[in-house]
């Protein structure tokens, strides 16, 4: 098989292997407040609340509000709640799949950039060095702690 086909498959397998241990984990840290205790995720709550409440489900105009406005993240949690309820496995699975997608998009983008700037990369060792520099700060929290998905 060509590297163009094998590379993404190996990357997806590696991401799945690295994060598969999170599938059996429960909610952690801020997940309790952001997911389990957030009424904006429930189907009986008006969908428009997402646009007037903070990340934690509190009206954003309230004095005690955190003022963290992340309606897209809360909307993904609400969709996840509709499918998985409060079972953490589903949230972890969605995060691993999203993280895999981001890694594949980054892989594709990086390959295009390396090809475009191939005059800067003269051999495989330099290519490897460039990839290591660019991917050095990969954040594991994004896939393991659901309430950190907005950091991706």
Describe this structure in words.
It is a single chain. The protein is built from 6 helices and no strands. With 152 residues, it is mainly alpha-helical. Helix 1 packs antiparallel against helix 4 and helix 3 crosses helix 4.
Question: What brief labels describe this structure?
Answer:
54% helix, 6 helices, mainly alpha, elongated, Protein O-mannosyl-transferase Tmtc3, 152 residues
How confident overall, as mean pLDDT? 80
Terminus-to-terminus distance: 31 Å
Query: Uncertain segments of ≥5 residues (pLDDT<50)?
Result: none
H and E order: HHHHHH
SSE class: mainly alpha
Characterize the main sheet.
Answer: none
Count of helices? 6
Radius of gyration: 19 Å
> Considering DSSP H and I runs of 4 or more, what fraction of the residues is helical?
40-55%
Structure summarized in a few sentences:
Helices cover 54% and strands 0% of the residues.
What's the topology here?
Blueprint: H1 3-19, H2 31-36, H3 71-84, H4 88-116, H5 124-135, H6 141-144
Helix pairs in contact: 1-4, 3-4
């Amino acid at each position: 098989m060509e590297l163009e086909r094998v590379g993404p498959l190996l990357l997806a397998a590696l991401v799945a292997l690295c994060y598969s241990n999170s599938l059996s984990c429960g909610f952690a840290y801020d997940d309790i407040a952001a997911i389990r205790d957030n009424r904006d995720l429930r189907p009986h709550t008006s969908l428009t609340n997402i646009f007037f409440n903070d990340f934690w489900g509190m009206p954003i105009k309230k004095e005690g509000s955190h003022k963290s406005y992340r309606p897209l993240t809360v909307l993904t949690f609400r969709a996840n709640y509709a499918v998985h309820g409060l079972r953490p496995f589903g949230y972890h699975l969605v995060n691993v799949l999203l993280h895999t997608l981001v890694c594949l998009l980054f892989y594709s983008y990086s390959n295009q950039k390396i090809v475009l700037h191939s005059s800067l990369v003269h051999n495989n060792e330099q290519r490897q060095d460039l990839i290591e520099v660019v991917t050095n700060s990969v954040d594991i929290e994004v896939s393991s702690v659901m309430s950190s998905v907005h950091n991706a």
